[in-house]
Structure formats: structure tokens, C-alpha cells
Amino acid sequence: MRGCERRARRGDQGFVTAEAAVVLPVLVMFAMGLVWGLLVVAAQIQCVDAARTGARAAARQDPHDAVVEVAREAAPPGAKVTLSREGDQVRVVVVAEAPALGGLSYEVREEAVAAAEETVEAGG
Questions:
Q1: Which of 13, 45, 93, 100 lies most in the core, judged by the most C-beta atoms within 10 Å?
Q2: Does residue 118 or residue 117 have the better pLDDT?
Q3: How many percent of the chain have pLDDT more than 90?
Q4: Angle, CA 39 vertex, CA 67 and CA 99 arms, to 5°
Q5: Which residues pair with 84 in a beta bridge?
Q6: What does the DSSP 8-state code read for residue 22?
Q7: Residue 85 forms beta bridges with which residues?
Q8: From CA 52, how far away is CA 82, in angstroms rounded?
Q9: C-alpha angle 120/86/97, rounded to 5°?
Q10: What pLDDT does residue 63 have?
Q11: pTM of the full predicted structure?
């Protein structure tokens, strides 16, 4: 009986190494995919914040350059900020490339709309 057990154990040698050689690259790729997904979500959240910040500034009738600068500060690096006015509403659009991981690039886009506040002149 002991001879059979020893032969079975000797035949199993190397299986753990072979399984690890197959599983480890899959786990690494899965982890990289998760990290890339988190980077995309973080860039999307930054775009949301930047668009809302820009829309608030534009609604207060801040100058165009100041609105764009405030939105760019909150946006991911290299983001494009577009400001437009349609009637009594202002629209701020922020478009950015999410950080690429292994050649995977993804564009995130967010827009915010706010009602423009009309300045009330002090008078009698």
C-alpha cells in the first residue's frame, strides 16, 4: 500500500507549479483591470465636480475665463472645458481622457446646467 501512495504523490509533483503559472497571469490581469476601472471612475467623479463647480460660477455671472479656470482646476489634467449660455441657463461641459493602463483609453464626459442669476442693481 505504501508503494502505491508514494507513486501517486510523485506523479502529482509539478502540478502546483503548472497551475500557478496559469493562474497568476490571470490574477494580475484581473487586478490591472480593477485598477483601470477605478481610475476611470475617479476621472468621472472629477469631471462631475468640475462641471458643477463651473456651472455654479457661471450662474453667478463670473467672467468666462474665470469659470473655465475654476472648472479646469477641479477637472482631471488635460480636460477640455466648454461653457455656453442658452437663454437663462448656462451649460458647462467637461471632457477628459481617463488615465490609460496598458493602452486602454477611455473618454469621460460630464455636463452641468444651472439657471443664470440675474444681477440686481442696487437702486432706489
A1: 93
A2: 117
A3: 57
A4: 75
A5: 91
A6: H
A7: 90
A8: 12
A9: 115
A10: 93
A11: 0.74
